[in-house]
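Re: the 114-residue chain
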Amino acid sequence: EVQLQASGGGLVQAGGSLRLSCAASGFAFGDYGMGWFRQASGKERELVATVTWSGSSTYYADSVNGRFTISRDNAKRMIYLHMRNLKPEDTAVYYCHEFKGDSWGQGTQVTVSS
């Protein structure tokens, strides 16, 4: 059974930082691309960032490029999202995602106050 456990969310002031973590199990983690998505209240889920199986290539949505960094540790079966210079519009539930099997974690809430 695929499991993706996201953690690290919380309440932070604008301009602050958070690091999200996602622990993966139940599949060949090192073989697959992974990503982070987010969904703000009343809005559709949107892609935030992706990382290839090796970690050598990443992609960022324009809205977070230059502020967020995605990374992975295949030995620990973890992916991370380091978020800096957070803005109120970053407020959302953040989900980690495994692309090949289209699996989702339970999400972690990030709230940025102005």
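The chain has no helices and eleven strands.
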